[in-house]
Amino acid sequence: xxxxxxxxxxxxAGMSMLNMLIMLFSVLQAVVIAxxxxxxxxxxxxxxxxxxxxxxxxxxxxxxxxxxxxxITEALHKGGRSVARKLSASTLNLVFxxxxxxxxxxxxxxxxxxxxxxxxxxxxxxxxxxxxxxLLLPMMAISVLYKVALTFHHSVESFLLPxxxxxxxxxxxxxxxxTLSPFWGIKAVVLGxxxxxxxxxxxxxxxxxxxxxxxxxxxxxxxDPRMRKMGKLAxxxxxxxxxxxxxxxxxxxxxxxxxxxxxxxxxxxFQMTAYAQALFSIPLNKVYYTHISxxxxxxxxxxxxxxxxxxxxxxxxxxxxxxVGLSLLALPLVRLLLERGSFTTLSSVWSxxxxxxxxxxxxxxxxxxLSTSLVYALKRMGIFxxxxxxxxxxNLALDLALIRYFDHLGIALSTxxxxxxxxxxxxxxxxxxxxxxxxxxAELTTLARALLxxxxxxxxxxxASPTGWRDYRYPGEVNPILLLGMIFGGIxxxxxxxxxxxxxxxxxxxxxxxxxxxxx
Length: 520
Prior knowledge:
Elements: H1 3-37, H2 41-117, H3 123-155, H4 160-163, H5 168-184, H6 187-211, H7 225-255, H8 262-297, H9 301-338, H10 345-358, H11 362-378, H12 381-406, H13 408-434, H14 441-464, H15 480-500, H16 504-519
């Protein structure tokens, strides 16, 4: 094995461990926030205020990943480091200028924006959310600059140390909320977020110096063909990238018309679903995005299709049992992790109900993420934008229709339905682009085996769990040792069922693990 391959394997292993550590601190952050604020209206106000800065940062991140990283990589290969530095400096200047202008506009329009995002809030809640939005906007600006700087590092294959900054936000938020929330209330969360993203940006400065970084220079280089190409791609991608987080903004706007605390309950339920997604989506995306991009670059269309199909099969194997387990153990999991302080039993019930519904989005979210990687590799941004905009319209219609009958769970049901439609639309369009169906007999067979194995695992969890864990009216006490034993027991049963069914993808994973163990 070459040194480069060893280095790459070491980087992937290091980033996997780092992502796991970040997730653990994120769980601790959620526990501390739940203890301090529960499902109070103040946390609702924070979540409404936070969604707009989060939307802008997410859009910027997607645009940067899809346009800036390829442009800098191309500049490095064709023009050398000096050309790449010039492009990087011009991009940084342009982003800084855009962020400053946007920051001023949003600060001025904050009251009107909050009124649109939370039509169900009373005057006192609107005033608090407006203050929180104005306090959060500087964090947005810092975070966007951090994303740009992080891309510069990735372009020169510097991954591990720059991504170490991901630890700072959950740690800063946890410390600030734990120590300052009794005095500052919800503003302690804002302080923690701002300190966390500032530390992320500052850690990159000495790393720039060590690696020769970029040398700042004035100018925007708007006539540079690379800048124009980036701008064109960014325009096509803009609304598609916004769709996912825009749907969350729509959800919170509609939910603001319900009882106080329902926005928070949906957040907790979705957050726990996101933890399960992060266990597999990060390594899968990194591996398959690289493989798919390489196959597309080499015009290996059969290889592209096979890599995509392999990703679909793995998603079925990983996410279906997660969905079954989370839906059956939602109430004891939420109570064990979050129920303390201001987070009451009623908060647990609302959040667990949301988790039961949201968990069934896991497979669809995985398919959307995998399909998006292929869309980026094919550079078909217009397709992504068109589908994303149509999903926003569908989400709004379903939110308004379902909330009447299912209260806050209508929002969660709408999310699942939209993610299902989104994943189907992406796979259908990509199948046409690649000239062949991307879901065939092998994928359906793996899906059927995973469903059967998940059903057997689910039967075990249902029979082994105490009645009080399933009674949302009168929840029983949670035994953490029993819960942990059931989780591990469920995993063992699921894996054994897949082995009995001779699932090919699982056998491949076991073969690779054996090979690595025997080599070491």
